[in-house]
Amino acid sequence: MSASKRGRGRQWGFVPALLALALSALACARPSSQQATIELASCRPDGFAEEVLCGALTRPENPAAPDGRAIDLKIVVLPARASHPMPDPLYVIAGGPGQSASAVAPMLNGLWRQIRRQRDVVFVDQRGTGGSNRLDCEDARADQPIARRLVRDEATDARLLDECRQALRQKADLAFYGTSLAVDDLEAVRQALGHGQINLWGISYGTRVALAYLGRHGTRVRTVTLDAVVPPDVRVFETMGPNAARALELVFADCARDAACAAAFPDLEARFFALVDRLRREPIQTAIADPRTGQIAEVEITARTFAAIVRNVLYDPDVTALLPLTIAQLEKGDARGFLAQADALTKSTEVAEGMHLSVYCGEEFSRRSSASQAALRDTAISRGAALFDAQVVESYAKSCANWPRGEVEASLFEPVVSNAPVLILSGALDPVTPPDFGERVKKTLSNARHVVAPGASHGVSARGCAAKVIARFIDKASPAELDTACVEAPGRPAFFLDFAGPKP
């Protein structure tokens, strides 16, 4: 699912609008006085180039205790530019778990620009993220020293995680930040804004939320776009190692097929695993300057650190294009390029770690099969799967050991059956939600179209012409009529032969 700063899953402009018209349209559609409403006001959140509309909806943290602690859900609305917008807005559901929808908003300008010609775009920060009682561990934020961001020793990790859990308990009951409650929150927002049918766009973990909403409130859904889909019935922790290994094997195979890459980096697969073995015996000791303070920090790159960073690199095909060159540099003991890539990926991943763990520990980690995990560690099956599985599972095993877990409905893990129009997007190079996940979800969605982008990894919507295809899909609500050739054409970005870039 999406990558975090701890080597877990990864992971994500406007023309001025006539605010008075937008407010008027929303007011006309408001629900009855007995129902909660949301008052929207002009605002300019961080990262936005224009004024938009903001509001909040108060929800009980524990639905069974309506007089107990309450959560204010942050809502951002990008008003449609049309004077008479369509009545069915697009609701955006971020990934992670732990990403803020409103924080993702400025990162996908092309898609929202297309949609906003006719429709409002609504961002609801899921409970525990962004402006909705964010459950963050202070040490995980991007403003920490670079050495701490990149390499986390186990003893310090355990202490900081325990401190984080204790601190978060002052502001939240961590058992009430799961997917089912997020679906209920989303429906409450829809009602409070007075919307009838809505369109959904979800990415990564956000597809799990979107599918759960479709299963529970199908009559309210006009279209669904699922980017990097997570099937409800998949046990995520049993697939993380093999799927990351699959993406890595594609790197080896594609480099071997590329004459320039093969000549520059022969026998790449054997060299990769020889490097892993070497790091197990003798970690690389290096020094790196913190770009903010200039202070020099000592960093140790172990095999586990290497696996965690490589897995994150595989989420981004543009960064993956550097991987063969990075391996060659590490063979020489030069880790500067590798750490620079890791730092860039870490900074781009803003995940509320407390909410992330409430979802993963409560809904995913507890469902893993110990027999399957043991089998994956048999290197005779796959050295790559064993490498990544050990890194991911061991990390979560320590984190989830004492993390509070809420009750989870069994229906959350059942395939969703629907005839709603659904567009499924998969990246052929995805290390966590590969194309076969899209095919699996499509089996029970009778009006779905699955499109695979050959050169994309985890997330297709921001690449190439995908935004236009998604906008056309939402306009027509007919996946069968879509021309998707432009999404299915581009291949993997060219491999870097040196730090000057790919060969022309």
Main pleated sheet:
9 strands, mixed
Physical arrangement of strands within the biggest beta sheet: 1-2-3-5-4-6-7-10-11
Number of domains: 2
Structural class by sheet pairing and helices? alpha/beta
Please give the share of residues in helix.
40-55%
| Rg measurement, Å | 23 Å
**Straight-line N-to-C gap:** 34 Å
Apparent shape: globular
Question: What fraction of the residues are assigned to beta strands by DSSP?
Answer: 5-15%
Low-confidence stretches: 2-33, 371-381
Number of strands: 13
Explain what this protein looks like in three dimensions.
There is one protein chain. The protein starts with 18 loop residues before the first helix and ends with a strand. The chain has two domains: 41-126 and 185-233 and 420-488, Alpha/Beta hydrolase fold, catalytic domain (Rossmann fold), CATH 3.40.50.1820; 146-174 and 235-413, no CATH class. The strands form three sheets. Strands 1-2-3-5-4-6-7-10-11 form a nine-stranded mixed sheet, with helices on both faces. A two-stranded antiparallel ribbon has the order 8-9. A two-stranded antiparallel ribbon has the order 12-13. Strand 10, helix 18 (435-442) and strand 11 (448-453) form a beta-alpha-beta unit. It is built from 20 helices and 13 strands. The chain has 504 residues and is α/β, with parallel strands linked by helices. It has helices at 19-28, 101-104, 109-115, 146-150, 154-168, 179-193, 205-216, 240-257, 259-264, 268-281, 303-313, 317-320, 323-331, 336-347, 353-364, 370-376, 383-400, 435-442, 466-476, 485-488; strands spanning 41-43, 52-60, 70-78, 90-93, 121-124, 198-203, 221-227, 284-289, 296-301, 422-427, 448-453, 496-498, 501-502. The longest helix has 18 residues, at 240-257.
